[in-house]
Amino acid sequence: MGTTMFGAVDNPEDYIQILEKNHLNYKIHIDAAYGGFVYPFSNKASAINFENQKISSITIDAHKMLQAPYGTGVFICREGLIENVLTKEAEYVEGMDLTLCGSRSGANAVAVWMILFTYGPFGWCEKIRILQIRTEWLCEQLEALNVNYFREPFMNIVTIEAQNINQELVKKFDLVPQKHDENNQWYKIVIMDHVEIDHFMTFITDLKATIQKNIETIKV
Length: 220
Ligand SMILES: *Cc1c(COP(=O)(O)O)cnc(C)c1O
Fold this sequence. Notes:
Blueprint: H1 12-21, E1 28-31, H2 39-42, E2 55-61, E3 73-77, H3 106-144, E4 149-150, E5 157-161, H4 167-173, E6 176-177, E7 186-190, H5 197-219
Parallel strand pairs: 1-2
Antiparallel strand pairs: 2-3, 4-5, 5-7, 6-7
The structure holds pyridoxal-5'-phosphate.
């Protein structure tokens, strides 16, 4: 649910159908590390959750979109499955090594709890809705410029083909490359609180100028 570079979301049914057809024994894990605090809120019809009996486990990171301190990844699985990920190495802590034993930071858990309760479910939905509107605005502008991009319709990541992006734009707007070498083909923009329409306006103006310059170079 939300790959790091493209924000792409897979439909678990695509996998389930094939696995079932071949009578295979399987577990399905949803990596919602990035998208878990976006997709279920923006797509109310999403069925990627434990209501789907075939989904075994889900991870969700509070240190991404929720902006909690690092190390606040959450792993949830169905009853009876946690035993499969238990490690014998931590036998020095009494009981099962599952939650806040040993030196794990309880403050992190409290931070996540505080963030969630400060927003509340409606507050968080509103925030995601605003980010969706901004993302749509950027996509419309890119379309008007005929610039190729990928965006999962319910996500807040816009991944733009590198073709029209020069190093000046990358530096000025802190664009994130897919690869940190000369073979890079994509740059992404993650739309968060601090990424506002005003920034997009400047970005689009600069991008337009770059494209214009490229066209003129070709003509010459
Ligand atoms: C960030 C991320 C991870 C890694 O999670 P960390 O808890 O930050 O190490 C895994 N999968 C996806 C899709 C991510 O975005």
